[in-house]
Write a structure and sequence with these properties.
It is globular and about 40 Å long. The protein is built from five helices and eight strands. Strands 4-3-2-5-1-6-8-7 form an eight-stranded mixed β-sheet. The longest helix is centred in the first third of the chain and has 10 residues. β7 and β8 form a beta hairpin.
């Protein structure tokens, strides 16, 4: 069975939205190898509607490697009940039951499925127990404002640390799994 992993940038105060606001220019030298490592494990991407709409305008023309080649050539599954038009090559909409759609995707042969960005989708997958790994690039900055990964009224979501590394520039790469 394929793994479903998420990947988000996060500031020290827990902001996962708009990392371009808080990732300093000098930290970008640490990122290509980390991103390359993450995408090497994946052969398909899961995106929420908002992320898909933003990224389908940006990434097809982007030269930011290694992610541009990966995202433009990978199958993209978009979780949406409202999206009807998509022109980004390799895109398929998933509009049914989230649990059924994700279970079907995970049962197909292949490498890991990656959820990039898509904060609301990551929240839903995490709370539904469908996410196998939650990965962050923790940036040494305080964003001050923006969306956090989880804001909910339910019980705490317990996680177990799988790995942690720090780059020479001070970026931390953290991987967690849900704790049963």
């Amino acid at each position: 069975m394929r793994k479903l992993t998420s990947f988000l940038f996060m500031s020290l105060d827990g902001v996962v939205e708009a990392p371009n606001r808080y990732v300093r220019d000098d930290l970008y030298r640490d990122l290509p190898s980390l991103i390359g490592e993450i995408i090497a494990e994946q052969d398909a991407v899961l995106l929420g509607r908002k992320t898909y709409e933003e990224w389908s305008e940006y990434w097809p023309q982007s030269k930011i490697e290694p992610f541009a080649t990966f995202i433009n050539n990978s199958p993209k599954f978009i979780v949406s009940r409202t999206l009807t038009v998509f022109g980004w090559r390799g895109s398929t909409v998933l509009s049914g039951d989230l649990r059924e759609d994700i279970t079907a995707l995970k049962s197909q042969p292949g490498r890991a499925l990656g959820v990039h960005g898509s904060i609301s989708l990551v929240q839903s997958l995490l709370l539904a127990g469908l996410l196998d790994e939650l990965r962050f690039i923790l940036v040494p900055a305080v964003a001050g404002q923006g969306r956090h990964l989880l804001s909910h009224d339910g019980n705490p979501v317990q996680l177990a640390l799988l790995s942690a590394r720090t780059t020479p520039g001070g970026v931390q790469f953290l991987a967690y799994r849900s704790r049963e």
